[in-house]
Amino acid sequence: MSIIGWILMGLIAGIIAKLLMPGKDPGGCLLTPLIGIAGGLLGGWLGKVIFGVESIDGFFELSTWVAAIVGSLILLLVYRLIAGRKNS
């Protein structure tokens, strides 16, 4: 997948993760795609390590999107925990 594909998928996965995990986030328009891109990489890595499958096959594969969204949710949760501590 090209870098443009990763950026587009990251943007969409980050938005979906924020929709699935509602609440106030200190991040904005720039943080959402970064969390999504990193989440996609994290989800793909976790799928490979835990389940032994290649979960990042292509842009239109369901496993790629599930991995990206799950990874984004994990990173969003970690980000909220860290940002919440700094604001308290």
Overview of the molecule:
By secondary structure, this protein is mainly alpha-helical. It has one domain (3-21, 28-87). Helices cover 74% and strands 0% of the residues. The protein is built from 3 helices and no strands. The chain is globular and about 40 Å long. The protein starts with a helix and ends with a helix.
Fold topology:
Layout: H1 3-20, H2 31-51, H3 62-87
Average residue pLDDT? 77
Helix content: over 70%
Shape: globular
Could you say which structural class the secondary elements and strand pairing correspond to?
mainly alpha
Q: Over the alpha carbons, how many angstroms does the gyration radius reach?
A: 13 Å
Give me the number of helical elements: 3
Number of domains: 1
List the uncertain runs. none
What's the N-to-C terminus distance? 40 Å
Summarize the main sheet.
none
**What is the chains' assembly state?**
single chain
Number of separate strands = 0
**In sequence order, what are the helices and strands, one letter per element?**
HHH
